[in-house]
TrEMBL record:
Protein name: M67 family peptidase
Recorded GO MF terms: metalloexopeptidase activity; zinc ion binding
Domain MPN: 2-143
Keyword Translocase tagged: no
Species: Candidatus Viridilinea halotolerans
Length: 159
């Protein structure tokens, strides 16, 4: 289960609105207790997508509208900040402009490089600069698909 404070959830929504219609990306800092993760802080990072994961030839390789790239250097910086605060990086988030918060095939391919089985993928849906549904996902160990993770935001259950 993933618990996000209301403040962190609001910060994710605000980031998604700020970068709309591009995707936003960031890291979730918190505490890991078995399979339970508590997010207490987020770190917004720059979407450094530059065509790293091409899936189809007709793609516009420079569009950041439906893809994101998490730079390993940003990850490292977040990891250091987490450690300094006595926290750890428990997951990441990104937005889906004008789409529901379901992971895409590109998300699945991109996630292989980032995550272990307990690493949470939070997706914030944002339509016309209004934040809508948010969902959390876990990539299964063999990387073949995501499964929905129970998500609680500031005491309110989401799915
Ligand atoms: Zn996505």
């Amino acid at each position: 289960m993933l618990t996000i404070t209301a403040e962190s959830a609001a910060a994710i929504a605000a980031h998604a609105i700020a970068t709309y219609p591009d995707e936003c990306v960031g890291l979730l800092l918190g505490r890991l207790n078995g399979t339970d993760k508590q997010v207490v802080r987020i770190i917004a990072v720059e979407n450094r997508w530059e065509g790293q994961v091409a899936l189809a030839e007709q793609d516009d390789p420079t569009s950041r509208r439906d893809r994101f790239y998490l730079d390993p250097r940003d990850y490292l910086r977040a990891d250091r900040a987490a450690q300094a605060a006595g926290l750890e990086v428990v997951g990441c988030y990104h937005s889906h402009p004008d789409h529901p918060p379901d992971p895409s095939e590109r998300d699945r391919v991109g996630a292989q490089a980032i995550a272990g089985p307990s690493f949470a993928f939070v997706i914030q849906s944002v339509y016309a600069a209004t934040a809508r549904d948010v969902a959390a996902w876990l990539l299964v160990e063999d990387g073949s698909h995501f499964v929905r993770e129970e998500l609680v935001v500031g005491g309110t259950k989401h799915a």
